[in-house]
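Quick note —
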Amino acid sequence: MGVFALGDQVPDIHPDAYVHPDATVIGNVTIGPESSVWPAAVLRGDEGEIRIGARTSIQDGSVIHTIEEIPTVIGDDVTVGHLVHIEGANIADHCLIGSGSTVLPGTEIGSGSLVGAESLVTPGTKAPAGSFMIGSPARVVEKPVPAEALEEPVRSYRARAKRFAAELRPLDYEPGRSIHPDPQGAQNGD
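Predicted structure written out below.
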């Protein structure tokens, strides 16, 4: 697993959280209970603090960073989609940050908000609770955010993290050799 201290800065990962072996967590990072960090995600708390709440998923390829002046805070029950970049922002509880989005320093996104895929949330943006933001730069549109759009990904990734924690195992793979599952859990190369 790619979990690293940086000098005196040591990640604080709740025992009920799941960090995939191919994710990277460095320095001043706190990850709450039942949260998950997926393959190729990077949480780098070198210049300031990163706080991830409970039941939040940081999905594949996402980059969470911080700046010295502003911590990066992501609340409870938040879904951070694939390939998202968040830096020096405050994202309240029950939000969904769509795949490929960028959320820049000084941003505050209110509870129950949705940032659409590929959106660019510019520095200092303040989005009230229940906002639906889309575009580049992202703007709030007059459209309610359905609760199910925010709740279902949280449920799904909590279940997925439990499965991965229980069932994920490395295989002894070599190029040019096929792997066939064996009912007893061994591998056969043909």
